Amino acid sequence: MWAFTRLSLAAVVLAPALSAHAAQIVIEVGPGEQKIFTPSNITASVGDVVSFHFLTGNHSVTQSSFATPCEPLAGGVDSGFQAVAADTTSIPEFSFAINNASAPLFFFSKQTIPVNECNKGMVFSINQNPNSAKSFAAFQANAKADVPAATATAGVSSSTVTAVPAAASSGAKILVQVGAGGGLTFSPSNISANIGDNVAFQFINKNHSVTQSSFASPCEALVGGIDSGFQFVAANATAVPEFGFTITNASKPLFFFSKQTIPVNECNKGMVFSINQDPNSANSFTAFQANAKADVPAATATAGVSSSTVAAVPAATSSGAKILVQVGAGGGLTFSPSNISANIGDNVAFQFINRNHSITQSSFASPCEALASGIDSGFQFVAANATAVPEFSFTITNASIPLFFFSKQTVPVNECNKGMVFSINQNPNSAKSFAAFQAHAKADIQPAAKANTKGRRVHARDFAKVAGK
Ligand SMILES: *[C@@H]1O[C@H](CO)[C@@H](O)[C@H](O)[C@H]1NC(C)=O
Ligand SMILES: *[C@@H]1O[C@H](CO)[C@@H](O)[C@H](O)[C@H]1NC(C)=O
Ligand SMILES: *[C@@H]1O[C@H](CO)[C@@H](O)[C@H](O)[C@H]1NC(C)=O
Ligand SMILES: *[C@@H]1O[C@H](CO)[C@@H](O)[C@H](O)[C@H]1NC(C)=O
Ligand SMILES: *[C@@H]1O[C@H](CO)[C@@H](O)[C@H](O)[C@H]1NC(C)=O
Ligand SMILES: *[C@@H]1O[C@H](CO)[C@@H](O)[C@H](O)[C@H]1NC(C)=O
Ligand SMILES: *[C@@H]1O[C@H](CO)[C@@H](O)[C@H](O)[C@H]1NC(C)=O
Ligand SMILES: *[C@@H]1O[C@H](CO)[C@@H](O)[C@H](O)[C@H]1NC(C)=O
Ligand SMILES: *[C@@H]1O[C@H](CO)[C@@H](O)[C@H](O)[C@H]1NC(C)=O
Ligand SMILES: *[C@@H]1O[C@H](CO)[C@@H](O)[C@H](O)[C@H]1NC(C)=O
Ligand SMILES: *[C@@H]1O[C@H](CO)[C@@H](O)[C@H](O)[C@H]1NC(C)=O
């Protein structure tokens, strides 16, 4: 398993950076409940991003080889199972980029329940030659014939593909501020959104969440629903955490609350939010919020919610570029890409693809130790049947300071010690390069923590000024 991870890491690190000019090719997985990829085969150029949109069912896109169509290729690309609930409110997406257009690539859905989908012909290929012996038609025929895994493989190199950030949503981005002005509010409190729109929550201060519930139970988390987890913003924070998701059904009203209960139950204080409610229906936002407040004991029933706290969206968030980083793509212990350059105003968005990772700020000197009051997404768990891709982001306000990060997960392995680290604006030619940082992480170097606290304070002054003013 860890050998697989290292192969994936090598493929990612060696891959070229995503070109801004690359085409995006969208493949629908399971359209109309069918066990198919549409289109089933494509031609792609170097730099092109192939983006799989999982529309229904519970499928995967898993790399195999021409010779063994239904067997995962060691070190190959694998989306993992992507289950889409019938009433899903978002579409999982998985993407990778092509870095060798001469090598034909072959894929299948590894789902076998209730039927072996590969044997049903649910396969896909990139850059096959229809006139060769290894055409897509021959590959699909082999898949249906259940060609056994014992034969020699056709030699598709795992280095020909690499995970890259999924393409940004084509819809509008709708910003919602959480706790603006210190209030227990979502601003605005309710929105209308279309299919494809991305709803992004900016956590302004304190310690709130945006957690999906239902009209009937406003303050109870919906099983399998969207949940940002608690997003703590320190008083001296210099970055704005962001969590978002994309709408896939605009006919269905969605209801949310902040699950914080300390020092007060924020839901009972009316800190709720809705999307596409009908103000004239029984399930209006007004009725939802009244239900949320109805749980409040009479003695503490003061609202304390100010609607005058709606603030303008920070200019930096809307002006800069959005840089996407995938966390754990293909099941690997990786950030993809592993290091980036970002300008002031750029928004760095982390998509948590699977498992249970974090993006946590540390320092060059102590790669695997959380920086006091640094940026921390908290653990972002992605269930196998998840219907949304959690995203956490922040905005750069000082591009002169290199920033260092790690995944703080230690179960079942210390992911930082496995090299699951990330940096922004490192200088590859300096002593504090990303390569040196990652080597320290793997060597479990923690001089500040182990040697003396004075060293850590000195370091924090020099490098902890995240997006500092
Ligand atoms: C691209 O793939 C082809 C076919 O597998 C291989 O011969 C060639 O060396 C590869 N090119 C690079 C740059 O890896
Ligand atoms: C390959 O894809 C093309 C374009 O979608 C399609 O016309 C063709 O039928 C596909 N080939 C096979 C064998 O399915
Ligand atoms: C945020 O709130 C949660 C739930 O009350 C709590 O467990 C967590 O410690 C808080 N985080 C910080 C940094 O205070
Ligand atoms: C995900 O799986 C859990 C446990 O199996 C189940 O309770 C939940 O309803 C599922 N959620 C979705 C969205 O399918
Ligand atoms: C959207 O949600 C509504 C209400 O739950 C449902 O009736 C409809 O079938 C859904 N549409 C799609 C395309 O899933
Ligand atoms: C719903 O949102 C709109 C737009 O922000 C606002 O005017 C309206 O007052 C909100 N409805 C309620 C009941 O708060
Ligand atoms: C995610 O990992 C953390 C730390 O290991 C753990 O406490 C938490 O229970 C995990 N979450 C899930 C849902 O497994
Ligand atoms: C924020 O304050 C904490 C404690 O007061 C300190 O340890 C930390 O270094 C500060 N962080 C920043 C980014 O200034
Ligand atoms: C998706 O399929 C996998 C493999 O069959 C299974 O383990 C998982 O439970 C399925 N997820 C859902 C939500 O049905
Ligand atoms: C830093 O990122 C760039 C672009 O993604 C990549 O080419 C380079 O190899 C990375 N550096 C290290 C040391 O991994
Ligand atoms: C950015 O950080 C550098 C290094 O700490 C500092 O010298 C500079 O003044 C900062 N720039 C801004 C605009 O805050």
Automatic annotation (TrEMBL):
Superkingdom to which the source organism belongs: Eukaryota
Transmembrane residue ranges: none
KW Mitochondrion (keyword) present: no
Keyword Cell membrane: no
Signal peptide from the UniProt entry: 1-22
Key words, A-Z: Signal
Protein name: Uncharacterized protein
Originating species: Mycena alexandri
